[in-house]
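Q: Here's a chain of 260 amino acids. Please give me its 3D structure as tokens.
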Amino acid sequence: MKRALLCLTSLFLVASPRGVSADELKLKDGTKIVGNIVGFEGDSFKVETSYGFALVKKDKVASIVVSDVKADAKKPAAAEAKAPPPPPVKANPPAAAPAAKVVEAPMREEVEGTRYTNLTYSFRLYKPPSWSVIEGARKTLPTAIVAMGTDDQTTLFIVGREPLQRSVEQHAAATEKRLRELYENYRAMGDRRSTVAGLPALEKRFRGTVEEHDWSVTLLTFVREKDVFTLIGMTYANSDLIQIQENVIARTIASLEFTK
């Protein structure tokens, strides 16, 4: 999996407010690490924990779970400072039986020609002929409903969903802040109010560098009932096909419709 898709992992996991959710990484040797994934260095997750930063190799991770965290308001800060820190993560943990996998709600989806239908969340959209659904994406992107893109992953498209916790403007601002941290040479290309599936949306376009490639990114945030949806489409900006792929992404976004 390319680092560009891993950056989206960090976006979808960490865009939520601090103190509301945390990332629990279960390693293949049974070790659990709780914190917030804040970035990637080489082939490792950079995790901010209560005892500092830890680098966890991606191939050592069995699963990633986002869980609610309730702060203990009665606990004084001094007591927290004296608590003994958890043992550091071993660079090369000994081989052991893999940790039990997290049971996820089954995702019911269908692909018929150029139409993708998500039966679980009741929506459908256009699937370009050159794109494929990225199997197992939910294991890496827990809040993603679907991830798809070209086989060489030079163009990617993600639909994310999470409970509405604040205004759509605040969700969009938090997401943009995270994107500025993830992409080098971040350049805003314009914001505007738009519509997705007949619902008001905030659209942001920018360019930035990941994996030594410049990317053109379109980000839309909108609310439906009690959920906030995030659509993100990205394609190589340093390619002769940029305008074609940007048009394909725009068509895919415009095609989204909820069936009930």
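Q: Can you summarize the key feature?
A: The first strand starts at residue 21 and ends at 27.
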